[in-house]
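User:
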Amino acid sequence: MADEPTKGPTSYFPSIEKKYGRPIAEWQDLIRRHLPAKHMNLVAMLKNDHGMGHGHANALVAHTLAAKS
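Assistant: Predicted structure:
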């Protein structure tokens, strides 16, 4: 139903876009350009190079890698 709250990694997406000023598609493209890096290396890249918090970085990486499988 349309009124159900979003669950999982995508629930972070509106706050990621607001806080870091870039659309999710741009973050996903950035993550894909760093493949085949491992999950935690991608999280570390987002945190270290882009100042992203751990939860936001982890959600983006998890969702991007799951969509690639």
